[in-house]
Design brief:
The complex is a heterodimer of chains A (248) and B (327).
Chain A: E1 2-6, E2 9-11, E3 33-35, H1 37-52, E4 57-62, H2 68-77, E5 81-87, H3 93-103, E6 110-115, H4 126-134, E7 138-142, E8 144-147, E9 151-158, E10 161-168, E11 172-175, H5 187-193, E12 198-203, E13 210-216, E14 225-229, H6 234-244
Parallel strand pairs in A: 1-4, 1-6, 4-5, 5-12, 6-11, 7-11
Antiparallel strand pairs in A: 2-3, 8-9, 9-10
Helix pairs in contact in A: 2-5, 3-4
Chain B: E1 4-8, E2 10-11, E3 14-15, H1 17-33, E4 37-43, H2 47-52, E5 60-65, H3 74-88, E6 92-96, H4 99-109, E7 117-122, E8 124-128, E9 131-138, E10 143-149, E11 154-158, E12 174-178, E13 189-196, E14 209-213, H5 223-232, E15 236-239, H6 241-245, E16 266-270, H7 276-282, E17 287-292, H8 299-302, E18 305-308, H9 311-326
Parallel strand pairs in B: 1-4, 1-6, 4-5, 5-12, 6-11, 7-11, 14-15, 14-16, 16-17, 17-18
Antiparallel strand pairs in B: 2-3, 8-9, 9-10
Helix pairs in contact in B: 3-4, 5-9
The chains are: A alpha/beta (248), B alpha/beta (327).
């Protein structure tokens, strides 16, 4: 069975967000873009899937930035080919999942691997919506995965506990951090990846479901204070927490 | 066509507090959005739960009660919810942004189901001239976005512990029982077991008090000091990304952009310098205390109260002082 891994391009988590002049997007000046951290775990799981199931592993990215270096990384780690779809306008999870579903139709049946959410929009929509579009089940937030003969046993964290689920392939799996140990590509693989196909295609963006009205920075926290140095300051801290902050 | 549907989450017949918050918010927005409020309850043996909601203020409670709804499945719950939402004609759907809610909501909104707009993890809902506007954090809270919906239906998951849970009450809801429209073959995923966390350790995202340790804790064994303070405060242990990546603590405890976003009443950061991705995950805490050797650490910029010093002296002294308070 084929495997598809969806990769998002996001600002590095060390980024200090600045709002652009339009008041609805971030200022990209000085922002370093990286592979969405959760997608690293999805890619590793997809490579392991490919190692156990015959078929092709396609890495797919929707976005208009320059992402070829990162997509080559994915090829070096074990993907067979990569596609970047450049939409004619910005798209959210609805648009991304619709574009991917349309593009991968010829590869089906395929099991799809995604990060649980992209760390920019924090929606957690693409993978689940893609499952709906492909008409396959989804398991979101997978924190550990074991392949079975016909599918997989997954665990995920829920409030105050852990849930174990069984799913059949094909399906969509979205990954939590720590689900596996993402591999590093060796020099030989990096060289070989240069010959693997990486296609960039321009596509028409579907109409957006949401309208962004404004993007704002949260109000700054009021200036705090240093109570003192060392354990001698503990009684004063306790007094402040009780009498001023009223949290004890 | 108008009205609000609220999808309630229950475990063992107890409706979750976060779902009550979503219902309460729907009741507050009822007149602005127009139409009625329909609560949707799915599970097994739901009669008592439905009865308890009769005087909540909702206009109608649609109950899907069948043995195979005892455990959540995306496909099963989705088919029930879609049927009830379409029958009600609702233009807004509220659901608690729990793990289950954040699975179900995008699945409902996606193309094959309602073809609706979806705003995740909302922290505010307002209605402007009949148009629902959702406020939600992005970049783990480094920014907030306001969005409106271009589709006929708008699905919103609401962040737990943000919306007031007081129900307006009044009137008596009509309880309507409905047949789940799916069969066994429609469901591709099955929950085989649920285990509660061993030792009753508290979820860092749900605790009122969080005591977190960073690289300054020095190693996994140093976390005994953090744990002791967390216990004295009846709170949960949190961790910085650095110590999770080093393998000192499990990822479930990570606070920050690739971990959990927390807003407890009290957050105590011990030996955490305050990297920007960590600050994003805890800056909405009501009160922040920082203990760090380095007076220049960025954590002191967001802390309400800071102590500069060795955490292995300060934290045990704090643990002891708190123990004495409660005696």
């Amino acid at each position: 069975m084929n495997a598809i891994c969806c990769i998002a391009r996001v600002p590095d988590t060390a980024t200090r967000i600045k709002i652009a002049g339009d008041g609805r997007s971030i200022d990209p000046e000085g922002v370093q873009y990286v592979i969405n951290p959760y997608d690293e775990f999805a890619l590793e799981a997809a490579i392991q899937f490919k190692e156990q199931h015959e078929g092709e592993l396609l890495v797919i990215h929707v976005g208009d930035g320059d992402f070829s270096k990162d997509l080559r990384q994915c090829l070096a780690k074990g993907a067979d080919r990569a596609i970047q779809l450049k939409p004619s306008a910005p798209v959210g999870p609805h648009g991304i999942s619709a574009l991917i579903a349309e593009k991968v139709a010829s590869l089906l049946p395929a099991t799809v691997f995604c990060g649980k959410q992209a760390v920019d929009g924090d929606v957690g929509g693409t993978g689940i919506m893609l499952a709906g579009a492909l008409g396959v089940p989804a398991v979101a937030k997978v924190s550990s995965l074991e392949f079975t003969d016909t599918g997989a046993t997954c665990t995920r964290e829920i409030e105050g506990g852990t849930e174990t689920l069984e799913t059949t392939f094909p399906c969509v799996l979205t990954f939590e951090k720590g689900a596996n140990e993402p591999r590093r590509a060796g020099l030989k693989e990096i060289m070989a990846a240069k010959k693997k196909p990486l296609d960039v295609e321009e596509v028409t963006a579907p109409d957006p479901k949401l309208e962004i009205l404004s993007l704002q920075l949260p109000p700054p926290r009021p200036e705090g204070r240093i109570v003192g140095e060392g354990k001698e300051s503990v009684p004063e801290l306790v007094r402040l927490l009780r009498e001023e902050a009223k949290v004890l | 066509m108008s009205g609000i549907c609220v999808i309630l989450e229950q475990r063992g017949g107890d409706v979750k507090r976060a779902s009550i918050e979503a219902l309460a918010e729907a009741l507050r927005q009822r007149s602005a959005i127009g139409g009625g409020v329909t609560a949707i309850l799915m599970g097994s043996d739901m009669a008592t739960a439905a009865e308890q909601l009769k005087s909540s203020g909702a206009d109608k409670i649609v109950v899907f009660d069948r043995g195979d709804l005892a455990h959540y499945s995306t496909e099963g719950y989705r088919s029930c919810a879609v049927q009830a939402i379409q029958a009600s004609g609702a233009t807004a759907v509220f659901i608690a942004a729990t793990v289950q809610g954040r699975d179900l909501a995008p699945s409902l909104a996606g193309g094959a189901a309602l073809d609706a707009g979806y705003a995740a993890d909302c922290t505010d809902v307002e209605v402007d001239g009949g148009r629902v506007i959702a406020t939600r954090p992005v970049y783990a809270g480094k920014a907030t976005v306001k969005v409106a919906c271009n589709s006929a239906t708008f699905v919103l998951s609401l962040r737990p512990n943000v919306f007031d849970a007081s129900l307006t009450g009044g009137g008596e809801a009509v309880i309507e029982s409905a047949d789940p429209p799916f069969t066994e073959g429609d469901v591709g995923t099955h929950v085989t077991s649920i285990s509660d966390d061993a030792g009753g350790s508290r979820d860092v995202a749900e605790a009122d008090v969080v005591v977190s340790g960073g690289r300054g804790v020095g190693g996994p064994e140093g976390f005994a000091t953090i744990q002791a303070l967390a216990e004295a405060l009846d709170g949960a242990v949190g961790a910085s990304r650095a110590v999770v990546d080093l393998g000192w603590r499990p990822h479930a405890e990570q606070v920050g952009q690739t971990g959990k976003v927390v807003s407890p009443k009290l957050y105590v950061a011990c030996g955490i310098s305050g990297a920007i991705q960590h600050l994003a995950g805890m800056r909405t805490s009501k009160v922040i205390v920082a203990v760090n050797k380095d007076a220049e650490a960025p954590i002191f910029k967001v802390a309400d109260y800071g102590i500069v010093g060795d955490l292995f002296e300060v934290v045990p002294a704090l643990t002891e002082a708190i123990g004495q308070l409660e005696d």
